[in-house]
Amino acid sequence: MLTLNQIRGNSDFVINRLKVKNFNASKIVLQIIDLDKKRRQIQADTNSLENDLNSFSKNIGLLFRQGKTDEANKLKENTIVLKKKIKELNQQLNDSNSLLDNLVVQLPNLPHESVPKGKSPEENIKIREGGTFPELKGKALPHWELAAKYKLIDFELGNKITGSGFPLYIGKGAKLQRALINFFIDENQSAGYEEVSPPLVVNEDSGFGTGQLPDKEGQMYHIALDNLYLIPTAEVPVTNIFRNMILEEKDFPVKKTAYTPCFRREAGSYGKDVRGLNRLHQFDKVEIVQIQHPEVSYNTLEEMVLQVESLLQKLNLPYRIMHLCGGDMSFASALTFDFEVYSAAQKKWLEVSSVSNFESFQANRLKLRFRDKNSKKLVLAHTLNGSALALPRLVAALLENNQTDEGIRIPEVLHDYTGFNQIS
RNA sequence: GGAGAGAUGGCCGAGUGGUCUAAGGCGCACGCCUGGAGAGCGUGUUACCGCCUAAAGCGGUACGAGGGUUCGAAUCCCUCUCUCUCCGCCA
Question: Which domains does chain A have, with CATH numbers?
Fold first, then answer.
Protein backbone atom coordinates (compact mmCIF):
# COMPACT_ATOMS: atom_id res chain seq x y z
CA MET A 1 0.00 0.00 0.00
CA LEU A 2 1.29 3.42 -0.90
CA THR A 3 1.62 5.94 1.90
CA LEU A 4 -0.47 9.09 1.90
CA ASN A 5 2.78 11.02 1.81
CA GLN A 6 3.69 9.32 -1.45
CA ILE A 7 0.40 10.41 -2.95
CA ARG A 8 -0.06 13.83 -1.40
CA GLY A 9 1.72 16.47 -3.42
CA ASN A 10 2.88 13.93 -6.02
CA SER A 11 -0.42 13.10 -7.63
CA ASP A 12 0.79 13.61 -11.21
CA PHE A 13 3.86 11.51 -10.61
CA VAL A 14 1.80 8.68 -9.12
CA ILE A 15 -0.70 8.75 -11.96
CA ASN A 16 2.03 8.71 -14.59
CA ARG A 17 4.00 5.94 -12.96
CA LEU A 18 0.93 3.74 -12.68
CA LYS A 19 0.26 4.16 -16.38
CA VAL A 20 3.30 1.93 -16.88
CA LYS A 21 1.29 -0.79 -15.13
CA ASN A 22 -1.66 0.07 -17.38
CA PHE A 23 -3.52 1.30 -14.35
CA ASN A 24 -5.57 4.43 -14.70
CA ALA A 25 -5.25 6.02 -11.27
CA SER A 26 -6.35 9.56 -11.97
CA LYS A 27 -9.84 9.18 -10.59
CA ILE A 28 -8.84 7.38 -7.42
CA VAL A 29 -5.91 9.69 -6.73
CA LEU A 30 -8.08 12.76 -7.00
CA GLN A 31 -10.65 11.19 -4.69
CA ILE A 32 -7.92 10.35 -2.20
CA ILE A 33 -6.51 13.85 -2.15
CA ASP A 34 -9.96 15.36 -1.74
CA LEU A 35 -10.96 12.95 1.00
CA ASP A 36 -7.66 13.36 2.81
CA LYS A 37 -8.16 17.10 2.96
CA LYS A 38 -11.65 16.65 4.33
CA ARG A 39 -10.51 14.10 6.84
CA ARG A 40 -7.82 16.35 8.23
CA GLN A 41 -10.28 19.19 8.67
CA ILE A 42 -12.63 16.89 10.57
CA GLN A 43 -9.82 15.68 12.76
CA ALA A 44 -8.72 19.22 13.60
CA ASP A 45 -12.29 20.10 14.59
CA THR A 46 -12.72 16.95 16.62
CA ASN A 47 -9.44 17.41 18.47
CA SER A 48 -10.30 20.90 19.49
CA LEU A 49 -13.71 19.85 20.85
CA GLU A 50 -12.13 16.95 22.70
CA ASN A 51 -9.71 19.37 24.21
CA ASP A 52 -12.64 21.44 25.48
CA LEU A 53 -14.32 18.39 26.95
CA ASN A 54 -11.14 17.36 28.71
CA SER A 55 -10.78 20.70 30.42
CA PHE A 56 -14.43 20.62 31.48
CA SER A 57 -13.89 17.21 33.03
CA LYS A 58 -10.83 18.38 34.88
CA ASN A 59 -12.71 21.33 36.31
CA ILE A 60 -15.68 19.22 37.33
CA GLY A 61 -13.41 16.86 39.21
CA LEU A 62 -11.75 19.78 40.91
CA LEU A 63 -15.09 21.32 41.99
CA PHE A 64 -16.37 18.01 43.36
CA ARG A 65 -13.29 17.64 45.49
CA GLN A 66 -13.80 21.14 46.80
CA GLY A 67 -17.39 20.24 47.64
CA LYS A 68 -18.83 22.70 45.17
CA THR A 69 -21.43 20.25 43.87
CA ASP A 70 -23.82 22.80 42.45
CA GLU A 71 -21.20 24.46 40.31
CA ALA A 72 -19.99 21.08 39.11
CA ASN A 73 -23.45 19.98 38.10
CA LYS A 74 -23.88 23.20 36.20
CA LEU A 75 -20.71 22.54 34.25
CA LYS A 76 -21.93 19.05 33.46
CA GLU A 77 -24.76 20.47 31.43
CA ASN A 78 -22.24 22.13 29.12
CA THR A 79 -20.74 18.81 28.24
CA ILE A 80 -23.94 17.31 26.88
CA VAL A 81 -23.93 19.23 23.60
CA LEU A 82 -20.19 18.89 23.32
CA LYS A 83 -20.31 15.14 23.66
CA LYS A 84 -23.01 14.79 21.06
CA LYS A 85 -21.05 16.88 18.61
CA ILE A 86 -17.87 14.90 19.23
CA LYS A 87 -19.68 11.66 18.67
CA GLU A 88 -20.98 12.86 15.32
CA LEU A 89 -17.58 14.10 14.23
CA ASN A 90 -15.89 10.89 15.31
CA GLN A 91 -18.35 8.95 13.25
CA GLN A 92 -17.52 11.12 10.25
CA LEU A 93 -13.82 10.70 10.92
CA ASN A 94 -14.10 6.92 11.04
CA ASP A 95 -16.13 6.89 7.86
CA SER A 96 -13.61 9.07 6.05
CA ASN A 97 -10.72 6.98 7.27
CA SER A 98 -12.16 3.68 6.13
CA LEU A 99 -13.24 5.21 2.83
CA LEU A 100 -9.72 6.53 2.40
CA ASP A 101 -8.21 3.14 3.25
CA ASN A 102 -10.46 1.44 0.73
CA LEU A 103 -9.22 3.79 -1.96
CA VAL A 104 -5.53 3.66 -1.12
CA VAL A 105 -5.57 -0.12 -0.98
CA GLN A 106 -6.75 -0.18 -4.59
CA LEU A 107 -3.59 1.48 -5.88
CA PRO A 108 -0.84 -0.88 -7.07
CA ASN A 109 2.77 -0.24 -6.17
CA LEU A 110 4.63 2.27 -8.31
CA PRO A 111 6.88 0.54 -10.83
CA HIS A 112 10.60 1.32 -10.67
CA GLU A 113 11.83 3.79 -13.29
CA SER A 114 13.55 0.99 -15.21
CA VAL A 115 10.34 -0.96 -15.76
CA PRO A 116 9.53 -1.21 -19.47
CA LYS A 117 6.07 -0.31 -20.73
CA GLY A 118 4.00 -3.18 -22.02
CA LYS A 119 0.79 -5.08 -21.63
CA SER A 120 1.63 -8.74 -21.92
CA PRO A 121 4.47 -11.21 -21.26
CA GLU A 122 5.58 -10.82 -24.89
CA GLU A 123 6.79 -7.36 -24.01
CA ASN A 124 9.07 -8.50 -21.20
CA ILE A 125 12.70 -7.80 -21.91
CA LYS A 126 15.33 -10.52 -21.86
CA ILE A 127 18.25 -9.57 -19.62
CA ARG A 128 20.44 -12.56 -20.41
CA GLU A 129 20.34 -16.30 -20.82
CA GLY A 130 22.61 -19.13 -19.78
CA GLY A 131 22.99 -22.85 -19.51
CA THR A 132 23.15 -25.17 -22.47
CA PHE A 133 20.34 -26.47 -24.60
CA PRO A 134 20.16 -30.25 -24.69
CA GLU A 135 20.73 -32.14 -27.89
CA LEU A 136 18.19 -34.90 -27.74
CA LYS A 137 18.26 -37.91 -29.97
CA GLY A 138 14.95 -38.68 -31.59
CA LYS A 139 11.65 -37.44 -30.25
CA ALA A 140 11.71 -35.89 -26.82
CA LEU A 141 8.92 -37.07 -24.55
CA PRO A 142 7.02 -34.48 -22.48
CA HIS A 143 7.48 -34.83 -18.74
CA TRP A 144 4.01 -36.24 -18.13
CA GLU A 145 4.87 -39.18 -20.37
CA LEU A 146 8.26 -39.59 -18.73
CA ALA A 147 6.62 -39.43 -15.31
CA ALA A 148 4.31 -42.25 -16.29
CA LYS A 149 6.98 -44.28 -18.05
CA TYR A 150 9.31 -44.28 -15.02
CA LYS A 151 6.52 -44.22 -12.41
CA LEU A 152 7.64 -40.93 -10.88
CA ILE A 153 4.37 -39.06 -10.61
CA ASP A 154 0.82 -40.38 -10.70
CA PHE A 155 -1.58 -37.65 -11.70
CA GLU A 156 -4.58 -40.00 -11.78
CA LEU A 157 -4.10 -41.06 -8.18
CA GLY A 158 -3.71 -37.45 -7.06
CA ASN A 159 -6.96 -36.86 -8.85
CA LYS A 160 -8.60 -39.70 -6.99
CA ILE A 161 -7.36 -38.59 -3.59
CA THR A 162 -8.03 -34.87 -3.97
CA GLY A 163 -8.65 -33.55 -7.46
CA SER A 164 -6.77 -32.26 -10.45
CA GLY A 165 -3.67 -30.26 -9.71
CA PHE A 166 -2.67 -32.39 -6.74
CA PRO A 167 -0.14 -34.91 -8.07
CA LEU A 168 1.14 -37.92 -6.18
CA TYR A 169 4.91 -38.27 -6.34
CA ILE A 170 6.21 -41.82 -6.10
CA GLY A 171 9.55 -43.50 -5.43
CA LYS A 172 12.36 -41.72 -7.20
CA GLY A 173 9.94 -38.99 -8.17
CA ALA A 174 9.27 -38.28 -4.50
CA LYS A 175 12.94 -38.55 -3.63
CA LEU A 176 13.79 -36.07 -6.35
CA GLN A 177 11.45 -33.56 -4.72
CA ARG A 178 13.19 -33.93 -1.40
CA ALA A 179 16.60 -33.78 -3.02
CA LEU A 180 15.83 -30.51 -4.76
CA ILE A 181 14.35 -28.97 -1.63
CA ASN A 182 17.38 -29.88 0.43
CA PHE A 183 19.78 -28.75 -2.25
CA PHE A 184 18.09 -25.37 -2.54
CA ILE A 185 17.91 -24.78 1.19
CA ASP A 186 21.56 -25.75 1.66
CA GLU A 187 22.61 -23.43 -1.14
CA ASN A 188 20.58 -20.56 0.27
CA GLN A 189 21.98 -21.16 3.72
CA SER A 190 25.54 -20.94 2.45
CA ALA A 191 24.56 -17.63 0.89
CA GLY A 192 23.64 -16.34 4.34
CA TYR A 193 19.92 -17.02 4.48
CA GLU A 194 18.62 -18.40 7.76
CA GLU A 195 16.27 -21.31 7.37
CA VAL A 196 12.80 -21.04 8.88
CA SER A 197 9.95 -23.50 8.76
CA PRO A 198 6.77 -21.46 9.06
CA PRO A 199 3.08 -22.31 9.56
CA LEU A 200 1.29 -23.30 6.38
CA VAL A 201 -1.94 -21.56 7.29
CA VAL A 202 -2.15 -17.88 8.08
CA ASN A 203 -4.70 -15.50 9.54
CA GLU A 204 -6.35 -12.53 7.90
CA ASP A 205 -3.85 -9.98 9.17
CA SER A 206 -0.99 -11.86 7.54
CA GLY A 207 -2.90 -12.16 4.28
CA PHE A 208 -3.39 -8.43 4.34
CA GLY A 209 0.20 -7.72 5.30
CA THR A 210 1.69 -9.13 2.14
CA GLY A 211 -1.12 -7.99 -0.12
CA GLN A 212 -3.10 -11.15 -0.83
CA LEU A 213 -6.06 -9.65 0.99
CA PRO A 214 -8.32 -7.97 0.17
CA ASP A 215 -9.09 -8.59 -3.50
CA LYS A 216 -7.09 -11.70 -4.21
CA GLU A 217 -8.87 -13.94 -1.72
CA GLY A 218 -10.11 -16.11 -4.56
CA GLN A 219 -6.57 -17.30 -5.15
CA MET A 220 -6.20 -18.76 -1.69
CA TYR A 221 -7.85 -21.75 -0.08
CA HIS A 222 -9.90 -20.47 2.82
CA ILE A 223 -10.73 -22.43 5.95
CA ALA A 224 -14.00 -20.75 6.80
CA LEU A 225 -14.54 -22.37 10.18
CA ASP A 226 -11.39 -20.84 11.62
CA ASN A 227 -11.02 -17.99 9.14
CA LEU A 228 -7.53 -19.10 8.13
CA TYR A 229 -5.91 -19.30 4.72
CA LEU A 230 -3.62 -21.90 3.18
CA ILE A 231 -0.46 -20.11 2.13
CA PRO A 232 0.00 -19.49 -1.60
CA THR A 233 3.73 -18.96 -0.98
CA ALA A 234 6.16 -18.93 1.94
CA GLU A 235 6.46 -15.20 1.33
CA VAL A 236 3.29 -14.72 3.37
CA PRO A 237 4.26 -16.32 6.69
CA VAL A 238 7.95 -15.40 6.40
CA THR A 239 7.43 -11.72 5.62
CA ASN A 240 4.76 -11.51 8.30
CA ILE A 241 7.33 -12.48 10.91
CA PHE A 242 8.19 -8.80 10.72
CA ARG A 243 4.70 -7.36 10.94
CA ASN A 244 4.56 -4.50 13.49
CA MET A 245 8.27 -4.61 14.07
CA ILE A 246 10.79 -1.87 14.55
CA LEU A 247 14.27 -2.92 13.45
CA GLU A 248 17.61 -1.26 14.02
CA GLU A 249 19.88 -0.49 11.11
CA LYS A 250 22.38 -3.01 12.40
CA ASP A 251 19.77 -5.75 11.86
CA PHE A 252 20.08 -5.33 8.09
CA PRO A 253 20.15 -7.31 5.94
CA VAL A 254 17.55 -9.73 7.25
CA LYS A 255 17.80 -12.90 5.14
CA LYS A 256 15.46 -15.86 5.48
CA THR A 257 14.87 -18.95 3.42
CA ALA A 258 11.98 -21.36 3.80
CA TYR A 259 10.66 -24.46 2.17
CA THR A 260 6.88 -24.83 2.12
CA PRO A 261 4.22 -26.43 0.03
CA CYS A 262 2.20 -23.73 -1.72
CA PHE A 263 -1.54 -23.85 -2.32
CA ARG A 264 -3.22 -21.99 -5.14
CA ARG A 265 -6.84 -22.13 -6.15
CA GLU A 266 -6.30 -20.10 -9.30
CA ALA A 267 -8.78 -21.56 -11.76
CA GLY A 268 -6.58 -21.24 -14.80
CA SER A 269 -7.12 -22.14 -18.39
CA TYR A 270 -7.27 -25.73 -19.54
CA GLY A 271 -5.38 -27.71 -22.13
CA LYS A 272 -1.74 -27.91 -23.00
CA ASP A 273 -0.59 -25.10 -20.73
CA VAL A 274 -1.78 -26.83 -17.62
CA ARG A 275 -0.81 -30.39 -18.46
CA GLY A 276 1.39 -32.35 -16.13
CA LEU A 277 3.36 -30.14 -13.78
CA ASN A 278 2.81 -26.90 -15.64
CA ARG A 279 0.17 -25.60 -13.31
CA LEU A 280 -0.82 -27.09 -9.97
CA HIS A 281 -2.98 -26.38 -6.95
CA GLN A 282 -0.30 -27.68 -4.62
CA PHE A 283 3.42 -27.49 -5.24
CA ASP A 284 6.71 -27.24 -3.40
CA LYS A 285 8.83 -24.14 -3.32
CA VAL A 286 11.86 -22.78 -1.54
CA GLU A 287 11.64 -19.07 -1.00
CA ILE A 288 14.20 -16.42 -0.12
CA VAL A 289 13.16 -13.23 1.64
CA GLN A 290 15.16 -10.15 2.54
CA ILE A 291 14.38 -7.04 4.55
CA GLN A 292 16.67 -4.18 3.66
CA HIS A 293 17.54 -0.55 4.05
CA PRO A 294 15.83 1.45 1.26
CA GLU A 295 19.13 2.87 0.07
CA VAL A 296 20.55 -0.50 -0.89
CA SER A 297 17.50 -2.58 -1.73
CA TYR A 298 18.21 -2.60 -5.46
CA ASN A 299 21.69 -3.97 -4.88
CA THR A 300 20.03 -6.61 -2.79
CA LEU A 301 17.63 -7.42 -5.61
CA GLU A 302 20.63 -7.91 -7.88
CA GLU A 303 22.25 -10.17 -5.30
CA MET A 304 19.10 -12.28 -5.10
CA VAL A 305 18.95 -12.59 -8.88
CA LEU A 306 22.52 -13.90 -8.85
CA GLN A 307 21.62 -16.38 -6.11
CA VAL A 308 18.74 -17.82 -8.13
CA GLU A 309 20.86 -17.83 -11.27
CA SER A 310 23.59 -19.80 -9.53
CA LEU A 311 21.07 -22.52 -8.65
CA LEU A 312 20.01 -22.92 -12.27
CA GLN A 313 23.62 -22.94 -13.40
CA LYS A 314 24.49 -25.69 -10.95
CA LEU A 315 21.57 -27.73 -12.23
CA ASN A 316 22.87 -27.07 -15.71
CA LEU A 317 19.51 -26.03 -17.13
CA PRO A 318 19.02 -23.63 -20.02
CA TYR A 319 17.49 -20.50 -18.54
CA ARG A 320 16.77 -16.89 -19.30
CA ILE A 321 16.11 -13.89 -17.08
CA MET A 322 13.27 -11.57 -18.00
CA HIS A 323 12.75 -8.00 -16.88
CA LEU A 324 8.98 -7.84 -16.48
CA CYS A 325 7.08 -5.10 -18.25
CA GLY A 326 4.53 -3.02 -16.36
CA GLY A 327 1.58 -5.07 -17.53
CA ASP A 328 3.01 -8.39 -16.41
CA MET A 329 4.07 -7.27 -12.94
CA SER A 330 2.24 -8.10 -9.77
CA PHE A 331 0.17 -5.58 -7.88
CA ALA A 332 2.69 -5.14 -5.06
CA SER A 333 5.95 -5.23 -6.96
CA ALA A 334 8.15 -2.30 -7.95
CA LEU A 335 10.55 -4.36 -10.04
CA THR A 336 10.45 -8.04 -10.93
CA PHE A 337 12.79 -10.42 -12.69
CA ASP A 338 11.38 -13.73 -13.84
CA PHE A 339 13.48 -16.82 -14.42
CA GLU A 340 12.40 -19.25 -17.09
CA VAL A 341 13.85 -22.63 -17.98
CA TYR A 342 13.56 -24.18 -21.40
CA SER A 343 11.49 -27.29 -21.69
CA ALA A 344 12.94 -29.43 -24.47
CA ALA A 345 9.85 -31.49 -25.20
CA GLN A 346 7.21 -28.77 -24.87
CA LYS A 347 9.52 -26.42 -26.72
CA LYS A 348 8.72 -23.46 -24.54
CA TRP A 349 10.01 -21.44 -21.63
CA LEU A 350 8.58 -22.21 -18.21
CA GLU A 351 8.61 -19.71 -15.34
CA VAL A 352 10.38 -21.15 -12.29
CA SER A 353 11.16 -18.07 -10.24
CA SER A 354 10.08 -14.52 -9.70
CA VAL A 355 12.37 -12.15 -7.82
CA SER A 356 10.92 -8.82 -6.73
CA ASN A 357 11.59 -5.68 -4.80
CA PHE A 358 8.42 -4.41 -3.14
CA GLU A 359 10.14 -1.34 -1.76
CA SER A 360 7.97 -0.04 1.10
CA PHE A 361 4.67 -1.26 -0.35
CA GLN A 362 4.41 -4.33 1.86
CA ALA A 363 6.27 -2.69 4.74
CA ASN A 364 3.60 -0.01 4.93
CA ARG A 365 0.89 -2.62 5.32
CA LEU A 366 3.02 -4.62 7.71
CA LYS A 367 4.12 -1.56 9.69
CA LEU A 368 7.66 -2.82 9.31
CA ARG A 369 9.99 0.01 10.14
CA PHE A 370 13.52 0.73 11.29
CA ARG A 371 15.07 3.59 13.19
CA ASP A 372 17.20 5.74 10.96
CA LYS A 373 20.64 6.13 12.48
CA ASN A 374 21.02 9.79 11.67
CA SER A 375 17.57 11.30 11.94
CA LYS A 376 16.44 8.86 14.70
CA LYS A 377 13.12 8.71 12.88
CA LEU A 378 11.16 5.61 11.99
CA VAL A 379 11.33 4.73 8.31
CA LEU A 380 9.60 1.97 6.35
CA ALA A 381 11.96 -0.83 5.39
CA HIS A 382 12.09 -2.47 1.97
CA THR A 383 11.00 -6.06 1.48
CA LEU A 384 12.18 -8.39 -1.27
CA ASN A 385 11.57 -11.98 -2.12
CA GLY A 386 12.16 -14.59 -4.74
CA SER A 387 11.63 -18.25 -5.46
CA ALA A 388 14.83 -20.21 -5.09
CA LEU A 389 13.23 -22.21 -6.55
CA ALA A 390 9.75 -23.52 -7.38
CA LEU A 391 9.87 -27.22 -8.09
CA PRO A 392 7.23 -28.46 -10.55
CA ARG A 393 8.26 -26.74 -13.77
CA LEU A 394 11.88 -27.16 -12.86
CA VAL A 395 11.29 -30.88 -12.52
CA ALA A 396 9.46 -30.84 -15.83
CA ALA A 397 12.47 -29.29 -17.54
CA LEU A 398 14.88 -31.53 -15.66
CA LEU A 399 13.10 -34.67 -16.80
CA GLU A 400 12.60 -33.55 -20.37
CA ASN A 401 16.06 -32.08 -20.95
CA ASN A 402 17.99 -34.94 -19.41
CA GLN A 403 16.23 -37.86 -21.04
CA THR A 404 18.37 -40.42 -22.85
CA ASP A 405 17.72 -43.83 -24.31
CA GLU A 406 18.98 -45.36 -21.08
CA GLY A 407 16.95 -43.17 -18.76
CA ILE A 408 16.95 -39.74 -17.18
CA ARG A 409 20.28 -38.36 -16.02
CA ILE A 410 20.31 -36.57 -12.69
CA PRO A 411 22.48 -33.42 -12.47
CA GLU A 412 25.67 -34.07 -10.60
CA VAL A 413 25.02 -31.60 -7.77
CA LEU A 414 22.00 -33.66 -6.79
CA HIS A 415 23.64 -37.08 -6.62
CA ASP A 416 24.43 -36.83 -2.92
CA TYR A 417 20.86 -35.76 -2.28
CA THR A 418 19.07 -38.33 -4.43
CA GLY A 419 21.35 -41.28 -3.83
CA PHE A 420 21.01 -42.21 -7.50
CA ASN A 421 22.39 -40.60 -10.65
CA GLN A 422 19.92 -41.90 -13.17
CA ILE A 423 16.25 -42.78 -13.38
CA SER A 424 15.67 -45.82 -15.54
C1' G B 1 -13.32 -31.18 25.67
C1' G B 2 -13.82 -29.51 31.37
C1' A B 3 -12.19 -25.98 35.32
C1' G B 4 -9.51 -21.73 36.78
C1' A B 5 -6.14 -17.40 36.24
C1' G B 6 -4.47 -13.54 33.36
C1' A B 7 -3.20 -9.63 29.20
C1' U B 8 -0.22 -2.43 31.55
C1' G B 9 5.59 1.05 28.00
C1' G B 10 11.81 -2.49 24.80
C1' C B 11 11.49 -6.05 29.34
C1' C B 12 9.83 -6.96 34.65
C1' G B 13 6.09 -4.88 37.52
C1' A B 14 2.68 -1.27 40.71
C1' G B 15 -1.79 0.82 40.04
C1' U B 16 -9.91 -0.91 41.58
C1' G B 17 -13.32 6.20 39.02
C1' G B 18 -10.25 12.55 38.63
C1' U B 19 -3.28 15.93 39.18
C1' C B 20 -2.25 8.55 35.38
C1' U B 21 1.92 9.15 30.10
C1' A B 22 0.96 5.72 34.13
C1' A B 23 5.16 4.41 40.60
C1' G B 24 9.50 1.36 41.12
C1' G B 25 13.14 -1.67 38.79
C1' C B 26 15.90 -3.52 34.44
C1' G B 27 17.63 -2.15 29.78
C1' C B 28 19.20 1.71 26.44
C1' A B 29 21.34 6.81 25.18
C1' C B 30 24.05 11.05 26.67
C1' G B 31 26.91 13.65 30.48
C1' C B 32 29.96 13.76 35.03
C1' C B 33 33.59 10.74 37.40
C1' U B 34 38.12 7.29 35.65
C1' G B 35 44.59 6.32 32.71
C1' G B 36 40.63 2.94 30.74
C1' A B 37 36.46 -0.02 32.15
C1' G B 38 33.02 -0.84 36.03
C1' A B 39 30.52 1.11 40.11
C1' G B 40 28.36 5.63 41.49
C1' C B 41 25.81 10.24 40.35
C1' G B 42 22.85 13.26 36.91
C1' U B 43 19.74 13.84 32.53
C1' G B 44 16.86 11.63 28.97
C1' U B 45 14.19 7.39 26.95
C1' U B 46 6.42 4.97 23.44
C1' A B 47 3.85 5.14 19.02
C1' C B 48 0.22 7.06 15.71
C1' C B 49 -2.84 11.20 13.82
C1' G B 50 -3.64 16.50 13.40
C1' C B 51 -2.12 22.03 13.62
C1' C B 52 2.78 24.44 11.84
C1' U B 53 6.80 25.05 5.20
C1' A B 54 10.21 22.34 8.75
C1' A B 55 12.25 22.23 13.64
C1' A B 56 10.45 23.66 18.28
C1' G B 57 5.89 23.78 20.35
C1' C B 58 0.72 22.63 20.90
C1' G B 59 -3.77 19.44 20.53
C1' G B 60 -5.89 14.46 20.14
C1' U B 61 -5.72 9.07 20.59
C1' A B 62 -3.80 4.46 22.59
C1' C B 63 -2.98 0.20 29.35
C1' G B 64 -4.90 -7.18 24.34
C1' A B 65 -9.24 -5.70 20.45
C1' G B 66 -14.16 -3.74 19.88
C1' G B 67 -18.45 -1.67 22.18
C1' G B 68 -21.02 0.48 26.63
C1' U B 69 -21.78 3.30 31.50
C1' U B 70 -19.87 8.28 33.29
C1' C B 71 -18.75 15.22 33.16
C1' G B 72 -14.35 11.91 33.65
C1' A B 73 -12.22 4.77 32.69
C1' A B 74 -5.86 1.20 33.08
C1' U B 75 -9.70 0.92 37.00
C1' C B 76 -16.94 -0.55 36.34
C1' C B 77 -20.21 -3.52 32.52
C1' C B 78 -20.72 -6.50 27.74
C1' U B 79 -18.56 -9.13 23.46
C1' C B 80 -14.34 -11.11 21.13
C1' U B 81 -9.15 -12.62 20.71
C1' C B 82 -4.92 -14.49 22.80
C1' U B 83 -1.72 -16.51 26.83
C1' C B 84 -0.85 -19.46 31.17
C1' U B 85 -2.09 -23.45 34.96
C1' C B 86 -4.65 -28.03 36.25
C1' C B 87 -7.63 -32.32 34.46
C1' G B 88 -8.99 -35.36 30.14
C1' C B 89 -7.60 -37.00 25.20
C1' C B 90 -3.56 -37.41 21.92
C1' A B 91 1.18 -37.37 17.39
Answer: 4-104 (1.10.287.40), 121-423 (3.30.930.10)
